[in-house]
Amino acid sequence: xxxxxxIFDHPGNPRYPTPFFVMNKGYGYLSxxxxxxxPFQLAPGGEPLRLRWAVLAYPDQxxxxxxxxxxxxLSARREGKYRLLTRAAxxxxxxxxxxxxxGTVIS
Length: 107
Prior knowledge:
Layout: E1 3-9, E2 20-23, E3 29-32, E4 53-59, H1 64-75, H2 82-92, E5 102-106
Antiparallel strand pairs: 1-4, 2-3, 4-5
C-alpha cells in the first residue's frame, strides 16, 4: 500500500527554504540543515531562535496541488496549528478506510 511523507518548511524560518541533509549509507538520516552552507549567527542579547516545520503523513499517491495548498495554509500562520493542518490534509487526501492524512507542526 502506497503512502508518503511531506516536510513543510515555514517561510518565516531563517534561510528559507532550508536545505536538508540526507544520508543513506549504513542507515537512513534526514535533517533540516540551516547551517549547511554557512555558519549561523544568533541574535545578541539571548533572543530565542525559532524554527518551524510541519510533517505530514498521507495515504496514496502524492498530489502536488494539494501539498502546495497545505503549505500555503501553514505559511499563513504565525503559530503552528496542527489540528487545522490535519483537518485540511484529510480533506485533500481522503482515504477509503478512514486512515487519512495526519499532520503535526514542529515549532
